[in-house]
Amino acid sequence: MTITTLSLYRFDSLPARLWVLGQMGFARLSLMRMREVGFWKLCGSGRGEGFDLRPNLAVWAILATWPDAETAFDRTQNAPVFKRWQARAAENWTLVLQPISARGDWTGKSPFTPQGDVPEGAPIAALTRASLRPATALRFWSRVPSISQVIGDDPNVLFKIGVGEVPLLHQVTFSIWPDTHTMANFARGNGPHGRAIAAVRSEGWFTEELYARFAVLGDFGTWGGEQPLAAYPQLIPKHRTAA
Questions:
Q1: Rounded to whole angstroms, what are the CA distances from 238 to 49, 73, 118, 220, 233?
Q2: Angle, vertex CA 132, rays to CA 131 and CA 133, nearest 5
Q3: How many alpha carbons fall within 13 Å on the CB side of residue 166?
Q4: How does pLDDT run across 86-97, given as a tens digit for each residue?
């Protein structure tokens, strides 16, 4: 069973931020040498609730896939590259995710293999990744503020962040919802997000796109000084520890 992890790190000091900028090159070597890791990406982040033009130099992420949940928990806590990031970061939070649906590609690959049912009571995570066509980038970014405001104001969203590999053109949104119903209402409703999805189809904004959904199996660490999923004690509690 393939498992996905998203590890978020916050770097507060200038030396730590300069260090992690260097890691965009050096950490690649460590990840390429890890036998257990499958697909992986190093990402920066934006300041808004999803896609955002403004970079957030404090927050960075490592996304990776693993053969099983135990390996995912172990390597994201104990592998040297992850331990280095944890040691430099002021705060870190890792989510362990089971893919339940996926459509599209990421740099020509299908990294998430859907499997199994959603565990009862587990929250649902949504990941959207897009490579923008330069010719349509202005139309895309003109819609972003209204989409970001809607997701930020939605009382059902448990967590949201925008990350990406290449500023302006390669973007990822990640959000967590209490269940599939509330997530679907936001994504497909007649609001800014739903209208943007329709425009993607009719105007061909993207050269590549990926839409994936995950069951959240567990987490460890904190974010914003809190455990964002503390209301879900069924999420592998033995691994939930303070950062």
A1: 30, 11, 20, 9, 10
A2: 125
A3: 8
A4: 999 999 999 999
Give the other-Cβ count within 10 Å of 230's Cβ. Answer: 11
Residue range 110-169, pLDDT digits in tens? 999 998 777 777 899 999 887 765 555 555 655 554 445 555 556 778 898 988 876 555
Beta-carbon contacts of 186 under 8 Å, excluding residues fewer than 6 positions away, are 150, 151, 154, 156, 157, 177, 193
- pLDDT band at residue 200, thresholds of 50, 70 and 90? low
Q: What's this model's pTM, rounded to 2 decimal places?
A: 0.83
The tokens describing 113, both together, are 């293999």
Angstrom distance (rounded) from CA 19 to CA 206:
32
pLDDT greater at residue 27 or residue 135: 27
Q: Using CA of residue 92, residue 96, residue 102, residue 106, what is the dihedral sign? A: positive
Nearest CA among 160, 209, 200 for reference residue 50:
160
Helix (H) or strand (E) holding 124: strand 124-132
Name the one residue in this structure whose structure tokens are 């590549």.
208
20-29 long-range contacts, CB within 8 A, separation 24+: 20/60, 20/85, 20/88, 21/57, 23/60, 23/84, 23/85, 27/62, 27/81, 27/85
Taken in order of first residue, the domains within the chain and their CATH numbers are: 3-220 (3.30.70.100)
pLDDT of residue 191 exceeding 60: no
Query: Nearest Cα to 82, choosing from 24, 156, 30?
Result: 30
Q: Which of 48-57, 88-97, 171-180 has the lowest mean pLDDT?
A: 48-57
